[in-house]
Amino acid sequence: MSDSAPMRRLLLPLVPLYRLGLAIREWQLRRTPPQRLNRPVISIGNLSTGGSGKTPLTIALAQALTRRGMKVNVLSRGYGRRSALPLSVDPNGTADLYGDEPLLIARDASVPVYVAAERYRAGLLAAQSDPKQIHILDDGFQHRRLHRDVDILLVTASDLNDRLLPAGNLREPLSALSRASVIAIPEPSLEARLKSLGWNGPIWHLRRTMDVPAIVGRVVAFCGIARPGQFFEGLSSAGLNVASRVAFRDHHRYDTHDLDCLRDAALNIRAAALITTEKDLVRLGPLAATLALPLHTAKLRIEIEDESAAIDWLLNKIL
User: Is the pTM higher than 0.85?
Assistant: First the structure.
């Protein structure tokens, strides 16, 4: 049990209020037809508050569809960005303007990415650029104001053993599984559990890998992501000597004070280098060049097992 477990137990009485809010929202959604774009929309989402691998899966799917000759774009909220305008993401831009995840997707997937709080407006902007592109909706399972043709739901082991907010991390109860078109899982053992919960639909199996550079000597590992423990444990499992771990809040905006603290941590342990995630590197921006020590990144990658069959199924659903 995590260090926050006592606090979560204190929050248990608030779960019924959160569930009531979900019920009211469901009632409102059923009264309002979703907005529709002219081209198919494929949503990728999850049930919990971050840390499941939606961004790497979005990148993997965009690349897989591109390899099939499909023209695709990604629609994203752009969480944490300072601008409220619908924008086309410039891969050379900043996280402040576009958000860290859209910027990372634009750079790694090499497809057009559009950001707007209302994904429908992002889709309209995309259609102005190319009306023939298929839309991939990043983190879209709960964004139901936009019609989607396929809902890909990423489910992890922690999701199946978690509670609703605020006492847990689940944004929706497990009954929401029924809205999915296909469930994607990073662990084969989850298939039996899903079937025990009544899921009889298609299941995609994913392979998650972390590309960790070889670094001799002690390192300071830092990140501002939803589940930092997974990142730190992955580095240690890869053989790095992680002598100091620094965790910031999810989507943390770095400043010069943060870098001073990281330098102090590195000096205290005589570190040879620092290491962080791709998302954090995106958020650091030009500040990354001001660090006195080498800065490395560990890259999370997701592959769809039996990709050919999965994409055949997907294209059959949307074309």
Answer: yes
